[in-house]
Amino acid sequence: MSNIAVFGMGYVGCVTAACLSRDGHKVIGVDVDEEKIAAINAGRAPVSELGLADLIADAVDAGRLEATDDVADAVQRSEIAFVAVGTPSDNTGAVFSGSVERVVESIGQALRGSRRHYLVVIRSTLLPGILEDQLSPLLEQSAECKLGRLLCLCNHPEFLREGSAIRDYDEPPFIVVGANGARDADQIFDLYGEIDAERILTDTRTAALVKYTCNAFHALKVTFANEIGTLAQSFGANGHEVMQMVCRDRKLNISPAYMKPGFAFGGSCLPKDLRGLTRHAEQQALRLELLKSILSSNDSHLDRAIRMVQDAGHRSIGIIGLSFKAGTDDLRESPLVMLAETLMGRGYDLKIYDPGVAPSRLIGQNLAYADRHLPHLAAMLTDEPEEVFHHASLLVLGTDVADDLDWKMKYSGDVIDLRYDLGAPRRLLTTVQ
Fold first, then answer.
1. What whole-number distance in Å separates Cα of residue 34 and Cα of residue 52?
2. What average pLDDT does the chain have?
3. Could you list the active site residues?
4. 3-202: what fold?
5. What pTM, to 2 d.p., does this model score?
6. Are 115 and 141 in contact (CB under 8 A)?
7. Residue environment code for 357-376, b if the CB has 16+ CB neighbours within 10 A, otherwise e
C-alpha cells in the first residue's frame, strides 16, 4: 500500500482521498482551509457527496486518513502527491492555473535536497500544454531537480460526477494516465487494485484533452437533445420519443461510428437534411445555434485542408478518392470535389484516381453536380493509380480507396492524408522514404 498526499479537499480531492484510504492506502489531505482540515480530522465530510461521510468517518477511525495544512510534512510522509485543486475560468474565460502552480511549487520546495523518488500526479483539469510548459519547469526549478529518474510528473484526469462520484470512482469507463514512461503510470494504476477498468497509458497532452473532450461531448449531447426537442415541438412531434428511438440505434448513433477525426462530411443526405432543419428553424424564428453551426464548421474543415495543400508548396497534385466515401460513385457535395474544384480554380495541376467514379457512368443529379463543379473531370480522372503517382509531387489521400493501393512502395513524394493529418499532431507533410 502507498502513502499519498492529496492536495485540495474539494469534491474531487475529498472523494479521491476517501476512496484511496478505503482501499487501504495511507492518505494525508492537504488544504489551506482550516474548517475543512478540522472536519476531516473529526471524521466529517467537508463537502456533500452521497456516501462520502461514511467513507471519511471509517478511514479516519482506522487511522488511514488525516488532514493538514503543512505541505512539507505531507510531502515528507508520502511518495505520491495528487494535486486536485480547482481550475476555474478567469475573467477572459481562460483556465486559471494559479492554484495548481502554487501547489506544485510548494511540493517542489518541500522536495528540495531530497534524493528519493517522488511522483506528482495532476488530477486537476488543465488544458494540454499547461503541465508541459508551466508546471514541469516550475517543479524542476522549485525542487532543484530535473524530471526523470527521481522526480516525476504525470497527468491523471478524473471522470467523477457530483452526486455519483464514489460510484464513478469504483466503476470508471477507463483509467487514463499521461506519463513519459510505464514505470510512473504503473505506480498510479497499482493504486486502483481490483477496480475492473481498462488501464490506458498515453502522453500528457492527450490525457489532458481526453477530459475536456468528454465534458464538451456531454455538453454537446445535452444541447443537441434540447434543440431536437425544440424542433419537435414546432413540428408537433414528441421530442422525447424521437430521442429515445435515436438512442436505440447502437450501430451508428450511440456507438464509435463517425467518432474519428478525419475529413469533412458530404454526400446527398447529411448536408441537405441539416439545411432543411435549419431553414425550418429560421422560418419559425427558433434559435438552434448548435444545428446551425454544423455546416459552417464542416466548411471550415474543408478550408483547413485547402490551406494545408497550399502551404505544402507544390503545384502538381494527385488526389486519391473523389466520391464522398469509398465504394460509391456519389459525388454530390463530396468535400473532395470541392477541394479539387478550389485547387483547379487556383491553377493547380490535378490528377485524380477513384475506381468507383467514371464520367461515362455518371447519370442524373450526380452527373449534373459533376458537370457544374468539375466540368473537366474526364481529363483529370485516370484509371491507373500509377499515373497519379508519376504526376504528383504532392499526393492527397482523401478516402479509404488509398488502403487498396500499394502507394507507400510506388510513390516517393510528399503526402497529406486528410483522413488523419487534420486531427493529429501537426505534420503538414509526410515524406515517404
1. 19
2. 93
3. 269
4. Rossmann fold (3.40.50)
5. 0.88
6. no
7. beeeebeeebeebbeebbee
